Amino acid sequence: MTTPTSNDTGSTSSLNSLDSEKMGESASEGYLSDLDSKLKNLISERSDKQISKLFQDLDEKFNDKVESLKTSIGEEFTKEISNLKRENQELQKKLESMNEQFKDLERKIISSDKADKESTWTSKIDDLESYNRKYNIEISGIEEHFREDPAEIVLKLAEHLEVSITRQEIVAAHRIKSNKPEQPRPILVRFTTLSPKHQLYKKSRQQVDTNGKLIPVYSNAVFSNVKYLPIYVNENLTTYKKKLLGQAKQSLRPFYKYIWPKDGKIFARLDANSDITSIHSEVDIKNLLSAVESSRK
Questions:
Q1: What is the pLDDT of residues 10-24, one digit of tens each?
Q2: In the chain, what is the greatest distance between 2 CA atoms, to the nearest angstrom?
Q3: Are strands 265-269 and 258-262 parallel, antiparallel or unpaired?
Q4: Where exactly are the structural domains of the chain?
Q5: Which of 9, 164, 165, 279 is most buried, judging by how many CB atoms fall within 10 Å of its CB?
Q6: Of 155, 169, 151, 140, which Cα lies nearest the Cα of 235?
Q7: Strand partners, 174
Q8: How many Å apart are CA 194 and CA 167, to the nearest integer?
C-alpha cells in the first residue's frame, strides 16, 4: 500500500476545495432560481389580483354607468312620453274647437244663405206692392178736425208751397192708422200722375239748415186754429221698405252721403259725382258695404 505523499495530500485538498466551491455555487444558483421563481409567482399572483380587482372595479363602474344611463333614459323617455301626451291632448282640444267653429260657420252660412233667399223673395213680393204705392205720399203733422176734407187740406198745403195741383189730379185722400197715438193720423194721398207728387215732395224739402237737416213747414203757417206742429211729406213706403230704409241709413251712412226713397224704392249715392244705386233687400246693403271695404284695401 502506497503512502500518499505531501504533494498528493495538497492536491487532494485542492480538489476538495474546488468541489466545495462548486457545490456552494450550485446551491446558490438553486436558491436564486427558487427565489426568482417565488418572486415571479408572487408578482404573478399580485398581478392577477390587481388585474382581477381592476376588472372588478371596471365592471362595477360599467354596471353603475349602465344603471345610471338606464335611469336617465327612463326618466327622459317618461318625460318625453308625458310631453307627447300633453301635446296630443292640446291638439285634440284645438281640433275639437276648430271642428266646432267649422260647424258653427257652416250653420251661419246655411242660415245666411236661407235668410238671403228669403230676403230676395220678400223684396220681390214687396216690389209689387211698392209699385202700387208709387203714386202715393203721406202727409203728417196736420191736426184733425171733425168733418174735415183731406183733399182740401192737401190743396191748401200745395198752395202754401207754391205747387200747382188741381183737385182732379187727386185720386183719393184720407187719414190712415198711425203708430203714434199721441200724434194726428197721417193723410194718405194718391195722385193720378207722378208729377204733382214729385213737386209737392220736393218743395216740402227745400229748406235745410247749415248741417243739411230738413226745416219743415209748420202747421200754423198754413192753417188757422191748429196746433203748432211740423208738417212732413213722405213716401208711402211698405213696412218692409221702411225697415230697409232704416237699415240702409244705419249701415251705409258712414260711407254714403245720400240715401233716400222715391216712388216706393230706396236709393243710395256715395257723393254728388258718383252713380246712383238702388237697394231692394238686405243683400244689396251687404254688397254695397263689401264694395266699399274692398275699394279701401
A1: 555 554 554 555 555
A2: 207
A3: antiparallel
A4: 134-236
A5: 279
A6: 140
A7: 188
A8: 15
The strands making up 265-269's β-sheet, listed across from edge to edge, are 258-262, 265-269, 277-279
| 135-151: burial string, b at 16+ Cβ within 10 Å, e else | bbbbbbbbbeeeeeebb
For domain 134-236, the CATH superfamily is L1 transposable element, RRM domain (3.30.70.1820)
Please state, as a whole number, how many other Cβ atoms lie within 10 Å of the Cβ of residue 266.
25
Single-letter amino acid code for the residue at 30: G
- List the one residue out of 171, 177, 183, 165 whose CA is nearest residue 133: 171
Could you write out the DSSP letters of every residue in 15-35?
HHHHHHHHHHHHHHHHHHHHH
The predicted pLDDT at position 82 comes to 78
Please answer whether residues 196 and 159 qualify as being in contact, where contact means their C-beta atoms are separated by less than 8 angstroms: no
**CB proximity list for 143: less than 8 A, separation 6 or greater:** 184, 219, 223, 226, 227, 229
Q: Locate 158 and state its grid cell.
A: 200745395
CA atoms within 13 A on the CB side of 260: 12
What lies within 8 Å, CB to CB, of 219 at 6+ separation is 141, 142, 143, 226, 227, 228, 229, 230, 231
List the grid coordinates of 119. 230676403
- Residue 37 is predicted with a pLDDT of 72
pLDDT < 70 positions in the chain: 1-32, 35-36, 38-55, 58-59, 62, 66, 70, 77, 95, 99, 102-120
What does the pLDDT read at residue 198? 96
